[in-house]
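Quick one: structure for this chain?
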Amino acid sequence: MSVWSDVGNGLAAGASTAGNAVEGGVDTACDGAEAVVIGGCDAAEAGTTFVSDAVDTATGASNGGGPAATAVTVVVNVVLGVVDGVLDFVKAATHSGFESLRDIGGIFGGLLRGDFGYAAGRFIDLLGQIAFGLLLILRVLALGYFVGAIVRRYKRDALRRFVEGLLASTFGQPQLGAIRRRLRLTGGGIWGLRLAATHKVCMFDSDHTPLWSLHQDGSLDLYALAGLWSSDTRRNSGRIYPHDCPTSVVMFVHENGSETRATRFGLSRYINDPKHPGRIRVYAMSRRAIAQKLRMARVKCEEIGVRLSWNDSERFYLLGQSDTHEITTTQELNFSGNGDNTYFADRGLRTGTAGDDCTPLALGIFNFAPGNFGLVVGRDDLDSKTPPEPCPTGGRTDGCCMVIKRRTDGPPPAALGSAVVHRDFWPTHFARFILAHELGHYFGLCHKGNETWEHIMFSNAAWKASGRPVPLSGTPPFYWHDEPIFTLENGKNAWRFIVQQMPHCL
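Got it. Here's what it folds into:
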């Protein structure tokens, strides 16, 4: 490199450092404050749910406790629903307000780094947050938060009654008693299927992969992955559509193991210096993006009676480190997969045995080769086959017949293992729901029966392929809930799948 290149890179590094400091400082302050407020609201909502379940158990309402029990349940659901509505409003307003501040910090950070596409993207996000804030005000004035919370409580009670009946018709004593205790249907806490879930994010490490070589031959663009403008791959510069990895992060790794965000000067040195000095890691998603998706997946799965506990933090995530899955090839950079994929077993992430089912695994990747947003592995929809195969799960109401597929033809190591894969995309606001959508597949749901945008299991690609008209909702979705949901029928069909395909997890 020439002296002038060094000078230019040095100036760019200074601007990048200033931009990183501005955006990082705003993010840190907002993340901490939001975590405190929303964490407190979540704790309060857990308390109201605990009280509701305790009353339901004590009165026997979920097992046909009679008119008196039903009357008590109605009163409790209305009162606690109003409380939940207040908490929902506080959480939505808090998140929208801090997201707006983060967007402002991102705009200034992007401008200082010279990452003008990123700044433009954050400006568009800011406009979206302003519009959402206006809708939020209209919804609270129309009492939508309170009505939505009450409806959600009735839906939850209806799902519990269904699960109680399904278990009673499927299992006999003493197995039924043990299952009801594990699901806390007999009291002692909030009911639901508790599963420990693992999330890993794909990561390149220059100690094991010559990233400079992959950059020089065009297999990847380190500048673009770091959110810096790149003349090497302009399509992927600027963090704005159609950027494949809108929240990817490139970090310098220091001798003590600590990491700092990469600058243009350091990356240029690593790429162009014959000695390729330094060590870098490239992550498919930022810590913040991962935390948002894990929280959304946990909250949404609770709508179908599944309570996930993740290995990674949803709050104060800047204080920790994400669990990673190191990749070393460009084939893994552009994940090429389908429901028969053996990648997880081949890489030792899954065994292909029934034990996999009870510990959901999610992998955050850089990009899909086919252009998809997510994927479930180890599931098979018998109804989609030609001709459709007999369905072992009776009573489904969605025209879907999902079963667990243990392995492909042949002995292990051709095992599949249950897992989900997801990636980020722009606008990232909608990417928050992809992990929850894929986990819906994991618990036996498919796109059928979910034909409007208010449904988590709605598929835009499936809708376009079907030739159906624009999917308008049959209910007032934004009045009842301000984001996509799992419906009551989703919950019932998921539990039919759990009871028939995953009884070992009960």
